Amino acid sequence: MRSSEEKKIREKLKQKTWNEIKTNDSWAIFKIMSEFVDGYEKLSRIGPCVSVFGSARTKPEDKYYQLAEEISFQLTQQGYGVITGGGPGIMEAGNKGARRGGGVSVGLNIELPFEQHDNPYIDSDKNLEFDYFFVRKVMFVKYAQGFVAMPGGFGTLDELFEAITLIQTKKIGKFPIILVGSEFWKGVIDWIKETLLDKHQNVSEKDLDLFTIVDTAEEVISTINLFYKKNHLRPNF
């Protein structure tokens, strides 16, 4: 395992000629474009959806797996489809709940050396494959009516703060960002309040209003419905 990792590191750091760099980068642009075009074409037809994020390592017996499934089921009963990362764990739970509710079940898969594989609950015509994380993240946000973050790891945090940053900087329109599991998220929120806000003033107090923390499926649904009612908006039904 170590020798394999060292080989990959050496390959990444290997000196290349300017011509090699230019050629590789040029061809990469076409691959990136193709992923954007394919994603836009397929996802523009799916209707209103909520993106559900969380750990790929969460097991079916875990309470958060079961909660993610129930949240996704209830979302379909409100007319929403569900977008996940397409893999196991919380992602599988989200697609499973959408399938159980008879709603749209989308999977945006990423090619990874471990953890990631398709789950069986994605609609066959809505299972997309990506090589680039940044393209995949655009799809998660661009076609979401809401954003549900279940307990997860680095990937979940990356996607969560990406969405918060885009809304904070007004690069995209505001939509509900919901963190599920107050016991899980407490440490992160305390750090944001005590360190980022109070100690260093690196965020403003109103930035804390960009997300909501809940513990039940019913709270997720009411938060999304209240958001659209309060702002006199309608989801893109």
Structure in a nutshell:
This protein is an alpha/beta fold. The protein has helices at residues 2-13, 18-43, 63-77, 90-100, 133-142, 154-168, 182-199, 217-230, and strands at 49-53, 81-84, 105-110, 127-130, 144-149, 177-180, 212-214. The longest helix has 26 residues, at 18-43.
Polypeptide structure, described:
The protein has a single domain (15-230), classed as Rossmann fold (3-Layer(aba) Sandwich), CATH 3.40.50.450. 51% of the residues lie in helices and 14% in strands. It contains eight helices and seven strands, in the order H-H-E-H-E-H-E-E-H-E-H-E-H-E-H. It has helices at residues 2-13, 18-43, 63-77, 90-100, 133-142, 154-168, 182-199, 217-230, and strands spanning 49-53, 81-84, 105-110, 127-130, 144-149, 177-180, 212-214. Helix 3 crosses helix 8 (217-230). The radius of gyration is 19 Å and the shape is globular. The mean pLDDT is 89.
Placed side by side, the strands forming the largest sheet appear as 4-3-2-1-5-6-7
**How helical, in percent, are the residues?**
40-55%
| Global geometry | globular
Q: How many strand segments? A: 7
**N-to-C SSE string, H for helix and E for strand:** HHEHEHEEHEHEHEH
The number of domains is 1
Instruction: State which percent range the strand residues make up.
Output: 5-15%
Tally the helices: what do you get? 8
Q: Kindly provide the radius of gyration, computed on alpha-carbon positions and rounded to a whole number of angstroms.
A: 19 Å
**Uncertain parts:** none
Mean pLDDT comes to 89
Secondary structural class: alpha/beta
Just name the CATH architecture.
3-Layer(aba) Sandwich
- CATH secondary-structure class: Alpha Beta
